[in-house]
Amino acid sequence: MTKRFDVIGKPRRRVDGRAKVTGLTRFADDVVLPRMLHCKLLRSPHPHATIESIDVSRAQARPGVHLVLTGKDFPVTFGILPVTQDEYPLAPERVRYVGDPVAAVVARDEQTAFEALGFIEVEYRPLKTISDPEEALATPEPRIHSYGEQGNIHRLQAFEFGDVNEALAKADHVFEDVFFYQGNTHLPIEQHASVAAVDGEGKLTLWSSTQVPHYIHRALANALQIPPAHVRVIACPNGGGFGGKCDLHNHEIVVSKAAILLGRPVKICLTREEVFYMHRGRHPVLMKMRTGVTKDGKITGMHTQTLLDGGAYGGYGAASTFYTGVLQTVAYHIPRYKFDACRIFTNKPPCGPKRGHGTPQPRFGQEVQLDKIAEKLEIDPAELRLSIVAKPDSLTANWLKIGTIGLAECIRKVVASSDWKNRFRKLPEGRGVGLACGAYLCGAGLPIYWNKMPQSGVQLLIDRSGQVTVFCGATEIGQGSDDVLAAIVAEVLGVDPYDVRCVTGDTGLTPVDLGSYSSRVTVMMGNAAIQAAELLRDLIARAAAEHMETVPENVGFALGRVFRADDPGKLMSFREAIVLAEEKFGTLGSVGSYSPPRSPGRYKGAGVGPSPAYSYTACVVEAEVDRKTGWITVPKVWIAHDIGRAVNPVSARGQVEGSVYMGLGEALMEEQVFRRLPPKLSNALVHKIPSLLEYKSLTSLDMPEVFTELVEDPDPNCPFGAKEVGQGPLLPVMPAVANAVYDAIGVRIDELPITPDKVLAALEKKAKGETPRVGPESFPDVPYPEPMLVPPPWEGGDGNSVNTPRRRPLKKEALA
Amino acid sequence: MKAPRFAYARPASIAEALALLQKHGDDARVLAGGQSLVPMMNFRVAAPKVLVDINRIGSLTGIKVTKSFVRIGALVRHVELERSADVAKHLPLVAAAMPHVAHPAIRNRGTFGGSCALGDPAAELPACTLALGATFVVAGKKGERRIAAQDFFKGLYATALKPGELLVAAEFPLPKPGYASAFGELARRHGDYAMVGVAAHGLRKVGKFSDMRVAFFGVGDRPQRASGFERALEGQPAVDGALAKLDADLEPRADLHASAAMKLHLAKVLADRVLGGLAA
Lengths: 816, 280
Description:
The structure holds 2 protein chains of 2 kinds.
Chain A: H1 17-22, E1 37-43, E2 49-55, H2 57-60, E3 65-70, E4 94-95, E5 101-107, H3 110-117, E6 121-126, H4 133-138, E7 153-161, H5 164-169, E8 173-181, E9 193-198, E10 204-208, H6 213-224, E11 231-235, H7 250-262, E12 266-269, H8 272-278, E13 285-293, E14 299-309, H9 317-323, E15 337-344, H10 360-377, H11 381-388, E16 394-395, E17 401-402, H12 407-417, H13 420-423, E18 431-441, E19 456-462, E20 468-472, H14 481-493, E21 500-504, H15 521-547, E22 555-558, E23 561-564, E24 567-573, H16 574-585, E25 588-594, E26 614-625, E27 632-642, H17 649-668, E28 674-676, E29 685-687, E30 705-711, H18 733-745, E31 748-749, E32 751-752, H19 756-767, E33 773-774, E34 788-789
Parallel strand pairs in A: 1-12, 7-34, 8-32, 10-11, 14-15, 20-21, 27-30, 31-33
Antiparallel strand pairs in A: 1-5, 2-4, 2-6, 3-5, 7-15, 8-13, 9-10, 9-12, 13-14, 16-17, 18-26, 19-20, 19-25, 22-23, 23-24, 26-27, 28-29
Helix pairs in contact in A: 10-18, 14-15, 15-16, 17-18
Chain B: E1 7-9, H1 14-24, E2 28-31, H2 37-42, E3 50-53, E4 63-65, E5 69-73, H3 78-83, H4 85-90, H5 92-97, H6 104-109, H7 112-118, H8 124-131, E6 135-140, E7 143-148, H9 149-152, E8 153-155, E9 158-159, E10 166-173, E11 179-186, E12 196-205, E13 208-217, E14 224-225, H10 227-233, H11 246-249, H12 260-279
Parallel strand pairs in B: 1-3, 2-3
Antiparallel strand pairs in B: 4-5, 5-10, 6-7, 6-10, 8-9, 11-12, 12-13, 13-14
């Protein structure tokens, strides 16, 4: 059905745009309450140590200090996933990374609190440290945590969908590559901030820069052992999240506890340095990929092995580990697939979800490997990909349900716009183009704790004044979720989106929505919003139909008017129609709910990967490489994203351009890296660059021209057909850069970031006649378990596993 | 977090400023453009007890051209150097360097004197003073003294300024006829401090280099001239034969973004390009 839209698809100023650009948006740091106190955290200078003693008496005695808290004030562990409750708000006995909080001071102002930290005396006994996965595999003792698989291995996962060895044996060529993707961090403009306050009845409210108020609500109540009904979490608009505000963080628990103890509001604002320490960003991942192909470029099977450097705590790590394997299958047809994944504990800040959560790393490997395959088979890389794109309305080998897939159209668009055929392998030495693709979720199929309740709820309130207020737990993190919400409600009710009031991200007022992560908001909140708005529209239509002497089905809504569809001259204002409806039905309101469709996979572990829809992207990057300095510049990027339908094309294009920006940073310079101090000093693993001065990310002046195209093939599972755009467009950028570098100078840099020294090293190898490649040389021996065997759909499977691996079965995983 | 508490004084004259600096000694820091000092204070890397704000001292401002030199006041903002017709005419090296100094917002506030007195080894202007043979004018209790740029930069963030002294200006000799200059730097991003930079000035006569002064920055702990390289260039038509001398001239220090070997390599590539541009 083609329907003319009044709001959806129209380029508009965002509903929150004016407040953002005039500085009126109230971020968490802008919350100021009467009698408010300020908190600072004392963080461990040791990467691994036991706490022998803490003496807070001198800090406590400082003028202006109201409270000093330590680990003994927080007996209960927490963790965002129910399966990994391994963190303490303040470490009681042991610290596991430089930056692990050990004490907190609450004082009359930030300065006083900061200075008092210097009067807390902590005696540490340093322990042996583990700096990376290979060291961890070789060093089972001491264990960083007493739980996990064994030694310092946090998680092991192994799945096989069809006999992959057989598939590789039958292939004409088998490609085996090892890739490394360095860790990097989110870099939101807004540092984390929280304010906690208790009301007269002792109930707690926490304002916080968080992407997931509902999860924080649950976890905070548990961490403080107070009834959830007495806790309200308000997610302030975030100045960027990118996954870094998805955990319950130490500081949120600490200020909440302090507010309860003192009966006064308590605020904390982290410094940029602290944000680098707390991290939860991109996992460093070592990957090995074995792919079998026929001589015409069809994939026969693929085996992906990943090794994640998880840092000091679990966090979302179990989910991250799954995501390094599960979405490899949704872009191209892979008849047989196996993945082994392993996450390691190290004495560094914990890693977690960052834009693309666990998938950019294997996507990098897969897309660079495809480039190598295309070259070897002498097939154009765009043609190769076009010939293997997954089919619409199909299942993958690992039982993921693909609905619409606009990937081929995306590839064709960037091939045309970039003049690929006349550039690829045809530009002068030093200049090149590279192509890569990506695929991403439109919302994780399951929540992070097992339940059968809706994943998004929307409530609408409407009254005789004509005002429309929409309540939803979704969180505006800068991505435009309020705008999507207002637009969808406005479209259904035929009103101006700027007349819709959004009340969002407040667990005390809004129906539950799981939060702004996994690119779920447009699809899940949007579907719930349509349901709620249509219920109200039906009521109004019934009342208006009576008045206009017609049937409700013949009542139209547009541009603030309600009219007879067969005779648009018969009309009334939206407000008049509401008065009629309120007279007829009483107080007006409605609710909508959304739960994703059930995934066909039935095996244990099938919960990670399913999504109501998948988005697709193709990207061509042009690179210029200076052969003498190794400098890489990117003058232009062409990118096409399969968005289903753009709710607001301005906002959508902004997300695509932002993804290119972030992707180029990850490809060329960003790295969250650590070094060991000399043993005679402390043997500490310290963050090399916890500062924006030295952590290099592109600036606006370094951005290339970006040519963005949106491919619109509405997906029936999505509101007005709209898929995600927040994360997917990031994915192809990094491998496209690597492939462009190869086209420019004929060297393979199989690890990120691609820095000048690596380019020079590869060129030197090339000059000496060695393999012109820089990247990891080998993949360590990881004790992956026997895989769970699940036959793919086309091999007679029913979505269940056919074996029970000889290890403890995975618990029912419900992971984001 | 913002800076620790500090006292603030705003003298109206050099004499008043000197009195304050002498009174407070090591506790005092001079505030000029504040583009390095204030971030350092916010990071709590610097915690001066007293800031002596020299922004109201008129005698520290201005670019003056005399018969023999160009005098640049310590309070001259980067943007003034960038836009000055006198600088473009007489000190084209400085004019060429200015677009590389940070970003426009920083250039609007940052000062010539602040950049030189801070002595950041990766900064552009100190290298220009070396290449152009400038002389710093310094005021102290006992009056003014002059320090050749060659003797001014002592090490990492260290200069020949003594406690209680104030940098007043620098005097750049007017270039002699036939002299030319060239500037270049490599930075990962627009506006970053250089990983390696070169400022060069000398005579280009009948297709040969002569009397070259080549200053490198971002390589060692201070901007430094490459004297062996300069000597090897004398009378040569091209650069490449002299480049090997940089192995002995430079002592690159590895930093977060490049090894010492990488820096040396980049220094050679850049010297070749920048001086090659001069030869062309």
